[in-house]
# Entry
Amino acid sequence: MKITTIRFYDGSKERICRLGLSSLFLEVQQVIFDTQVFLLEESQANGAAVIRERLDAAFKSKGEWVFSKTGDIDWVKRMRYNSTVLARLGVEIQVSSRSDQLTRDLVHLRNSLREGKIDAGVVIVPSDRLQSFLTDRTPSLRDAIRIFEDEFKEAQEYPITVMAIEHDGPGDALPKKKTNLGTGKHPAETK
# Structure
């Protein structure tokens, strides 16, 4: 994949450099570059869950990134010197949920920054162009900027970086994830 935009808030670039998190920040970028995604370049033709799964697999393959399922930051890695933890970088991947989930991700990052669990955060979202090829209501850079700068301005007071990603090029449609609602059955009927 490609990175089309990086936006730094509240001195996150300086903090990443000052705390020695540059190598982890570069590793996040390398995870994105190493993740190949080709898709059908037609409006809403692709499922976004495949992109999320590929990014998660890439983080897992890098080693030492700790994954959290729900209610916390998606991926955290510690920068160590000998046995001492010097700093931690947290990453939220928001490519396959509704755009309003970005606010929840910001709350996770804010709380973890306040509690000292991480020292800087990164939010990964689809570029506006990539989002146009994904299912309806997935987030985009435009949504992230709106939430950061208009709806949840408090987020600008924390060292958080937003990265917009884009696919590698045209290809076959990425499969859409089926849900109970997508099957036409009531959720109770699928048990």
